[in-house]
Amino acid sequence: MLGAIIGDIVGSIYEFDNIKTKDFPFFSEEGDYTDDSILTIATADWLMNGGQPADYYLKYSTIYNHPMGSYGTRFIQWREEAHRGNRAPYNSCGNGSAMRVAPVGWSFPTESETLSYAKISAECTHNHPEGIKGAQATALCIFMARHGASADDIRKRISQEFGYDLTLSVDEIRPRYSWAGLDGNGDAGTCQGSVPQAIICALEATSFEDAVRNAVSIGGDSDTIGCITGSIAEALFGIPEDIRQKGLSYLPDVLKLKVESFENVRNRF
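Above: the chain sequence. Below: its structure as tokens.
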């Protein structure tokens, strides 16, 4: 899941200041982990220790309550209601379900378990069909990649299974994409408006770093697209050790230990 965190950190300074080039410093002193990383680690903690994912999302977002970029408005409202005892999901199709799902893709030996737990991770908040679909598509990409599937095989399967159009190239997406989605027809903050583009950025890449650069370069919700792309790219390419160590250096020790603990557990699969 470290790939998701690194994608988040790299994209963090471009979320509200989009760039349209792959030529930028990969790590920035101004960059930092955001809610994407925090909730990804919360997912990993849930998978390692059991219980309900909502408990972990509430706990982590309460402890780390002012990350760079903040949490989404509706998630903050959910958190406030949850503290009052109401944990009902809010029918969101936002890409928060896909940004935090990476650990699920590493945690199970079968596709059916991966898809089932991706749904569970999403629906406690993002119970809209598109929110669930975005989480499942991302987790399945990771599952397939870590089992040796090619980019072409993943592209074909995800298109068939989830109906995402993965035919455009990164170069075709870049001039047409913004926070308003592709050609202004949508919202880059939704699963349907960002998960297909994030998947393309990973599948077209030649390396982990190239994938994250692809993601940041298309614009839109840069930290979250970087996070989703990075999660898939880690399974496709691995993470170079220098990038791994630099990414970990942004995290406080307690979160770093959670990442390392999860990596030790996931190696069973």
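The first strand starts at residue 177 and ends at 178.
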